[in-house]
Amino acid sequence: MRTPIIAGNWKMFKTVTEALEYTTRFRELVKNIQGVEKVIAPPFTALHMVSQLLIETGISLAAQNMNEFDNGAYTGEISPVMLKEIGCQYVIIGHSERRALYGETDEGVNRKLKAALKHQITPIMCIGESLAQREKGETFTLIDTQLKKGLADLTKEQVSKIVIAYEPVWAIGTGRTATPEQAEEVHAYIRQWLKANLGNEIADLIRIQYGGSVKPDNIAGLMAKPNIDGALVGGASLDAANFARIVGFRQ
Q1: Is the dihedral of CA 134, 135, 140, 142 positive or negative?
Q2: Which of 30, 58, 150, 245 has the fewest CB neighbours in a 10 Å radius?
Q3: Environment class of 152 (CB within 10 Å of its CB; exposed 0-12, middle 13-18, buried 19+)
Q4: Could you tell me the CATH number of the domain that includes residue 231?
Q5: Which contiguous run of DSSP H or E holds residue 191?
Q6: Catalytic positions
């Protein structure tokens, strides 16, 4: 049985002070919620101080990105070694905004996955299509390519440790949400791809999140689908009470 995983990606929001206020409130709101893994991804500046507030709360800490190298002359970058030291258990890799705005590629995603796994940080690997690609009927071709290139040269054991986040680009920050049926169709395709390429046992272990305008009023419908194992939440995670309602979707 796969444990649902709900992650809040704050993107470039919240000062350290705001992040600490949020975390203090959020941990109280979700302290009695069981059976779901809770993850928050503050901006880099707040990671260390937030990590101190998460000790023994059952809430995991994620970074929103990282460099593929352990160290070096890469001005402005953050390495997996640095993230590991401050307590990050997860890192988001290949988010659609990173791909669209900063030119990140499937090959680069692959290198970052390997680096994260090397340092025992669980990657949340993001994949998904644009509106134009969906309208052209290219969704499954694109998903196939992103999985094939993103997971290249990884062992079955390594892939089993990755969380995959399907995020239709056309539904991120737009207010448009894929229906549970639309989301499940792609999640089922991803699961089948994993089975075909890695075997049933590995495919059944991997959690696949949905990301794209997830809100308290649509999370239950999404989570009712058999291949949707959680959510990568953007804007709706910026309010502690709102995100707590999403995390507590079973209540």
Answers
A1: negative
A2: 58
A3: middle
A4: 3.20.20.70
A5: helix 180-198
A6: 95, 167
Can you list the residues of the chain whose pLDDT is less than 50? none
pLDDT of residue 209: 98
Is residue 240 within 8 Å of 26, Cβ to Cβ? yes
Residues 209, 237 contacting (CB under 8 angstroms):
no
The b-or-e profile of 203-240 (16+ CB within 10 A means b, else e) is: beebbbbbbbbbbbebbeebbebebbbbbbbbbbbbeb
**3-class DSSP state of 126:** strand
Q: Helical H runs in 15-94?
A: 16-29, 44-53, 80-85
Structure token pair of residue 163: 């969380």
Q: How many CA atoms lie within 13 A of 65 on its CB side?
A: 19
Question: Which run of H or E residues covers position 99?
Answer: helix 96-102
Q: What angle do CA 106, 166, 50 make, to 5 degrees?
A: 90
pLDDT of residue 44: 98
Specify the DSSP class assigned to residue 3.
P
pTM: 0.96
pLDDT tens figures, 67-89: 999 999 999 999 999 999 999 99
Number of domains, the chain: 1
For residue 226, how far is the Cα from the chain centroid?
Answer: 18
Please give the pLDDT value at position 70: 98
Predicted confidence at residue 172, as pLDDT, reads 73
Give the domain range for residue 84.
5-247
